[in-house]
TrEMBL record:
SUPFAM superfamilies named among the record's database cross-references: Metallo-dependent phosphatases (SSF56300)
Top enzyme category: hydrolase
Sequence ranges assigned to domain Calcineurin-like phosphoesterase in this UniProt record: 14-211
Species annotation: Cupriavidus basilensis
Protein name as it appears in the record: 3',5'-cyclic-nucleotide phosphodiesterase
Matches recorded under Pfam families: Metallophos (PF00149)
Domain of life: Bacteria
Gene3D superfamilies in UniProt: GpdQ, beta-strand dimerisation domain (3.30.750.180), GpdQ, catalytic alpha/beta sandwich domain (3.60.21.40)
Entry's EC annotation: 3.1.4.17
Family per record: Belongs to the cyclic nucleotide phosphodiesterase class-III family.
Amino acid sequence: MNTTNDNPAGTYLLAHITDLHIKAGGKLSYRMVDTAGALRRCIASLLAAPQQPDSVVITGDLVDFGTEEEYRFLRGILQTLPMPVRLLPGNHDHRATLRRVFADHDYLFANGDGDAPVHYSVEAGPLRLVAFDCTVPGKPGGQVDPAALPWLEATLAAEPGRPTLLMLHHPPFHTGIGHMDRQGLADAALLEAVVRRHPTVERVLCGHLHRHITHRFGGTIAMTAPGPAHQVTLDLDPQAASRFRMEPPGYLLHQWDPAHGLVSHAAVIGDFGADHPFFDAAGKLID
Ligand SMILES: [Fe+2]
Ligand SMILES: [Fe+2]
Protein backbone atom coordinates (compact mmCIF):
# COMPACT_ATOMS: atom_id res chain seq x y z
CA MET A 1 0.00 0.00 0.00
CA ASN A 2 1.30 3.43 -0.89
CA THR A 3 0.86 5.64 2.17
CA THR A 4 2.46 8.86 0.99
CA ASN A 5 1.16 11.43 -1.43
CA ASP A 6 4.02 11.85 -3.87
CA ASN A 7 2.26 14.55 -5.87
CA PRO A 8 4.43 17.59 -6.66
CA ALA A 9 4.42 20.40 -4.10
CA GLY A 10 1.39 22.67 -4.30
CA THR A 11 -0.88 20.00 -5.75
CA TYR A 12 -3.80 18.57 -3.83
CA LEU A 13 -5.73 15.37 -4.48
CA LEU A 14 -9.32 15.05 -3.29
CA ALA A 15 -11.29 11.80 -3.54
CA HIS A 16 -15.03 12.28 -4.02
CA ILE A 17 -17.17 9.30 -3.02
CA THR A 18 -20.95 9.33 -2.75
CA ASP A 19 -24.10 7.32 -2.05
CA LEU A 20 -22.76 4.57 0.17
CA HIS A 21 -26.23 3.45 1.37
CA ILE A 22 -24.70 1.45 4.22
CA LYS A 23 -27.05 -0.85 6.14
CA ALA A 24 -26.35 -2.13 9.63
CA GLY A 25 -24.48 -5.41 9.88
CA GLY A 26 -23.85 -5.52 6.16
CA LYS A 27 -27.48 -6.28 5.30
CA LEU A 28 -28.06 -6.06 1.55
CA SER A 29 -29.69 -2.94 0.07
CA TYR A 30 -32.78 -3.71 -2.04
CA ARG A 31 -32.14 -7.30 -0.91
CA MET A 32 -29.25 -7.67 -3.35
CA VAL A 33 -26.58 -4.92 -3.12
CA ASP A 34 -23.68 -5.49 -0.71
CA THR A 35 -23.07 -1.79 -0.04
CA ALA A 36 -20.64 -2.41 2.84
CA GLY A 37 -18.53 -4.71 0.68
CA ALA A 38 -18.69 -2.12 -2.09
CA LEU A 39 -17.39 0.61 0.23
CA ARG A 40 -14.57 -1.65 1.42
CA ARG A 41 -13.60 -2.31 -2.22
CA CYS A 42 -13.76 1.43 -2.92
CA ILE A 43 -11.42 2.18 -0.01
CA ALA A 44 -9.05 -0.61 -1.08
CA SER A 45 -8.99 0.87 -4.58
CA LEU A 46 -8.18 4.33 -3.20
CA LEU A 47 -5.41 3.03 -0.97
CA ALA A 48 -3.86 0.96 -3.77
CA ALA A 49 -3.79 3.86 -6.27
CA PRO A 50 -0.39 5.29 -7.33
CA GLN A 51 -1.23 8.57 -5.58
CA GLN A 52 -2.99 8.81 -2.25
CA PRO A 53 -5.75 11.39 -1.85
CA ASP A 54 -4.95 14.12 0.66
CA SER A 55 -8.55 13.96 1.87
CA VAL A 56 -11.92 12.43 1.04
CA VAL A 57 -15.42 13.92 0.75
CA ILE A 58 -18.59 11.82 0.77
CA THR A 59 -21.58 13.70 -0.67
CA GLY A 60 -24.50 12.07 1.08
CA ASP A 61 -26.70 9.00 1.29
CA LEU A 62 -24.06 7.78 3.72
CA VAL A 63 -26.47 5.17 5.09
CA ASP A 64 -29.80 3.78 3.90
CA PHE A 65 -32.29 4.56 6.69
CA GLY A 66 -30.49 7.06 8.96
CA THR A 67 -30.29 4.80 12.02
CA GLU A 68 -27.61 4.96 14.71
CA GLU A 69 -26.70 1.32 14.07
CA GLU A 70 -26.05 2.10 10.40
CA TYR A 71 -23.86 5.12 11.21
CA ARG A 72 -21.87 3.10 13.75
CA PHE A 73 -21.27 0.38 11.16
CA LEU A 74 -20.24 3.04 8.61
CA ARG A 75 -17.89 4.65 11.13
CA GLY A 76 -16.02 1.37 11.58
CA ILE A 77 -15.49 0.99 7.83
CA LEU A 78 -14.36 4.61 7.35
CA GLN A 79 -11.75 4.23 10.08
CA THR A 80 -9.63 2.34 7.54
CA LEU A 81 -9.04 5.64 5.70
CA PRO A 82 -5.91 7.33 7.11
CA MET A 83 -6.63 10.78 5.62
CA PRO A 84 -9.28 13.32 6.72
CA VAL A 85 -12.84 12.40 5.65
CA ARG A 86 -15.62 15.03 5.39
CA LEU A 87 -19.28 13.99 5.29
CA LEU A 88 -22.49 15.65 4.24
CA PRO A 89 -26.02 14.27 4.42
CA GLY A 90 -28.22 13.10 1.57
CA ASN A 91 -31.94 12.36 1.50
CA HIS A 92 -31.38 8.92 3.11
CA ASP A 93 -29.51 10.45 6.06
CA HIS A 94 -30.65 11.74 9.45
CA ARG A 95 -28.76 14.86 10.52
CA ALA A 96 -29.03 14.49 14.30
CA THR A 97 -28.02 10.82 14.26
CA LEU A 98 -25.14 11.52 11.88
CA ARG A 99 -23.89 14.23 14.27
CA ARG A 100 -24.28 11.99 17.32
CA VAL A 101 -22.22 9.14 15.88
CA PHE A 102 -19.62 11.38 14.21
CA ALA A 103 -19.44 13.81 17.17
CA ASP A 104 -15.68 14.21 16.72
CA HIS A 105 -16.20 15.65 13.20
CA ASP A 106 -16.19 19.29 14.39
CA TYR A 107 -17.19 20.78 11.03
CA LEU A 108 -20.58 18.99 11.23
CA PHE A 109 -21.53 21.42 14.02
CA ALA A 110 -20.53 24.68 12.25
CA ASN A 111 -24.21 25.55 11.66
CA GLY A 112 -25.61 24.05 14.85
CA ASP A 113 -26.44 20.69 16.40
CA GLY A 114 -29.35 18.25 16.14
CA ASP A 115 -31.45 18.56 13.02
CA ALA A 116 -29.99 21.92 11.85
CA PRO A 117 -28.84 21.84 8.21
CA VAL A 118 -25.23 20.71 7.83
CA HIS A 119 -23.64 23.76 6.22
CA TYR A 120 -19.90 24.21 6.67
CA SER A 121 -16.69 25.51 5.14
CA VAL A 122 -13.32 23.83 5.74
CA GLU A 123 -9.83 24.31 4.35
CA ALA A 124 -8.30 21.38 2.50
CA GLY A 125 -4.72 22.31 1.58
CA PRO A 126 -4.94 25.04 -1.06
CA LEU A 127 -8.66 24.33 -1.56
CA ARG A 128 -11.79 25.27 0.35
CA LEU A 129 -14.65 22.79 0.70
CA VAL A 130 -18.06 24.39 1.22
CA ALA A 131 -20.99 22.11 2.04
CA PHE A 132 -24.48 23.48 1.41
CA ASP A 133 -27.13 21.18 2.84
CA CYS A 134 -30.24 21.17 0.60
CA THR A 135 -31.81 18.00 1.98
CA VAL A 136 -35.37 18.14 3.32
CA PRO A 137 -35.96 15.69 6.21
CA GLY A 138 -38.33 12.92 5.15
CA LYS A 139 -38.37 13.93 1.47
CA PRO A 140 -36.44 12.34 -1.42
CA GLY A 141 -36.01 15.66 -3.26
CA GLY A 142 -33.90 18.63 -2.18
CA GLN A 143 -34.70 22.30 -1.73
CA VAL A 144 -32.49 25.41 -1.76
CA ASP A 145 -33.29 27.29 1.44
CA PRO A 146 -33.38 31.03 0.61
CA ALA A 147 -32.65 31.81 4.28
CA ALA A 148 -29.27 30.04 3.98
CA LEU A 149 -28.12 31.91 0.87
CA PRO A 150 -26.69 34.96 2.73
CA TRP A 151 -24.37 32.58 4.62
CA LEU A 152 -23.31 30.96 1.34
CA GLU A 153 -22.79 34.33 -0.34
CA ALA A 154 -20.66 35.62 2.56
CA THR A 155 -18.67 32.37 2.74
CA LEU A 156 -17.87 32.39 -0.98
CA ALA A 157 -16.98 36.11 -0.85
CA ALA A 158 -14.66 35.68 2.16
CA GLU A 159 -11.76 34.16 0.23
CA PRO A 160 -12.01 35.08 -3.46
CA GLY A 161 -8.47 33.88 -4.14
CA ARG A 162 -8.95 30.33 -2.81
CA PRO A 163 -10.21 27.69 -5.24
CA THR A 164 -13.48 26.42 -3.82
CA LEU A 165 -15.48 23.22 -4.25
CA LEU A 166 -19.15 23.61 -3.42
CA MET A 167 -20.77 20.36 -2.30
CA LEU A 168 -24.44 19.38 -2.07
CA HIS A 169 -26.21 16.05 -2.35
CA HIS A 170 -28.79 16.75 -5.08
CA PRO A 171 -27.36 17.98 -8.40
CA PRO A 172 -28.69 21.47 -9.19
CA PHE A 173 -29.48 20.57 -12.82
CA HIS A 174 -31.84 18.54 -14.99
CA THR A 175 -30.21 15.17 -15.75
CA GLY A 176 -32.71 13.72 -18.24
CA ILE A 177 -33.25 10.67 -16.01
CA GLY A 178 -36.91 11.40 -15.37
CA HIS A 179 -37.58 9.59 -12.10
CA MET A 180 -34.46 11.18 -10.56
CA ASP A 181 -35.29 14.65 -11.86
CA ARG A 182 -38.68 14.31 -10.16
CA GLN A 183 -36.75 14.00 -6.88
CA GLY A 184 -34.23 16.68 -7.84
CA LEU A 185 -33.35 20.08 -6.35
CA ALA A 186 -36.12 22.71 -6.10
CA ASP A 187 -35.18 26.37 -6.58
CA ALA A 188 -31.76 25.54 -8.04
CA ALA A 189 -31.88 28.90 -9.87
CA LEU A 190 -31.49 30.67 -6.53
CA LEU A 191 -28.27 28.78 -5.94
CA GLU A 192 -27.09 29.37 -9.50
CA ALA A 193 -27.39 33.15 -9.09
CA VAL A 194 -25.10 33.06 -6.05
CA VAL A 195 -22.55 30.73 -7.68
CA ARG A 196 -22.42 32.94 -10.78
CA ARG A 197 -21.19 35.87 -8.66
CA HIS A 198 -18.24 33.84 -7.34
CA PRO A 199 -15.83 32.54 -10.00
CA THR A 200 -13.74 31.10 -7.17
CA VAL A 201 -16.12 28.09 -7.33
CA GLU A 202 -14.14 25.59 -9.40
CA ARG A 203 -16.71 22.80 -9.18
CA VAL A 204 -20.10 21.94 -7.73
CA LEU A 205 -19.78 18.35 -6.46
CA CYS A 206 -22.91 16.24 -5.98
CA GLY A 207 -24.23 12.72 -5.52
CA HIS A 208 -27.78 11.30 -5.57
CA LEU A 209 -27.68 10.16 -9.23
CA HIS A 210 -25.37 7.16 -8.75
CA ARG A 211 -23.67 7.95 -12.05
CA HIS A 212 -21.13 10.46 -13.39
CA ILE A 213 -22.88 13.42 -15.06
CA THR A 214 -21.56 16.94 -15.80
CA HIS A 215 -23.32 20.20 -16.61
CA ARG A 216 -22.50 23.91 -16.91
CA PHE A 217 -23.92 25.71 -13.89
CA GLY A 218 -23.56 29.31 -12.78
CA GLY A 219 -20.42 29.82 -14.87
CA THR A 220 -18.70 26.75 -13.45
CA ILE A 221 -18.97 22.95 -13.79
CA ALA A 222 -21.38 20.90 -11.71
CA MET A 223 -20.99 17.13 -11.59
CA THR A 224 -22.27 14.02 -9.89
CA ALA A 225 -19.99 11.15 -8.89
CA PRO A 226 -20.70 7.49 -9.66
CA GLY A 227 -21.67 5.23 -6.76
CA PRO A 228 -19.26 2.72 -5.21
CA ALA A 229 -22.08 0.13 -5.30
CA HIS A 230 -25.11 0.31 -7.64
CA GLN A 231 -25.68 2.84 -10.47
CA VAL A 232 -28.99 4.38 -11.55
CA THR A 233 -29.87 2.93 -14.95
CA LEU A 234 -28.98 5.23 -17.85
CA ASP A 235 -32.40 5.57 -19.49
CA LEU A 236 -33.30 9.04 -20.81
CA ASP A 237 -36.97 8.25 -21.44
CA PRO A 238 -38.75 10.74 -19.13
CA GLN A 239 -41.14 7.95 -18.11
CA ALA A 240 -38.42 5.34 -17.57
CA ALA A 241 -38.92 3.10 -14.55
CA SER A 242 -36.95 3.75 -11.37
CA ARG A 243 -34.25 1.10 -11.64
CA PHE A 244 -30.59 0.49 -10.85
CA ARG A 245 -27.93 -1.65 -12.50
CA MET A 246 -24.72 -3.29 -11.26
CA GLU A 247 -22.46 -1.43 -13.70
CA PRO A 248 -18.77 -0.97 -12.81
CA PRO A 249 -18.71 1.23 -9.68
CA GLY A 250 -16.44 4.21 -9.17
CA TYR A 251 -15.54 7.53 -7.60
CA LEU A 252 -14.00 10.83 -8.69
CA LEU A 253 -10.49 12.16 -8.11
CA HIS A 254 -10.08 15.93 -8.29
CA GLN A 255 -6.49 17.15 -8.59
CA TRP A 256 -5.66 20.78 -7.93
CA ASP A 257 -2.43 22.06 -9.43
CA PRO A 258 -1.79 25.82 -9.34
CA ALA A 259 -0.32 25.70 -12.86
CA HIS A 260 -3.22 23.80 -14.44
CA GLY A 261 -6.25 24.32 -12.21
CA LEU A 262 -8.61 21.58 -11.13
CA VAL A 263 -8.79 18.38 -13.20
CA SER A 264 -11.48 15.81 -12.39
CA HIS A 265 -10.96 12.11 -13.14
CA ALA A 266 -13.48 9.28 -12.98
CA ALA A 267 -11.92 6.18 -11.38
CA VAL A 268 -13.42 2.72 -11.87
CA ILE A 269 -13.36 0.19 -9.01
CA GLY A 270 -12.50 -3.39 -9.92
CA ASP A 271 -9.71 -5.84 -10.72
CA PHE A 272 -8.65 -5.16 -14.29
CA GLY A 273 -5.27 -6.89 -14.14
CA ALA A 274 -1.80 -5.43 -14.55
CA ASP A 275 -0.80 -2.31 -16.49
CA HIS A 276 0.57 -2.98 -19.99
CA PRO A 277 3.29 -0.98 -21.81
CA PHE A 278 2.61 0.91 -25.04
CA PHE A 279 6.33 0.80 -25.98
CA ASP A 280 8.90 -2.00 -26.02
CA ALA A 281 12.28 -1.90 -24.24
CA ALA A 282 13.83 -0.07 -27.25
CA GLY A 283 11.20 2.66 -27.03
CA LYS A 284 9.36 1.44 -30.15
CA LEU A 285 5.56 1.43 -30.23
CA ILE A 286 4.47 -2.18 -29.89
CA ASP A 287 2.89 -3.26 -33.21
FE1 LIG B 1 -28.35 7.57 -3.27
FE1 LIG C 1 -29.98 10.62 -2.74
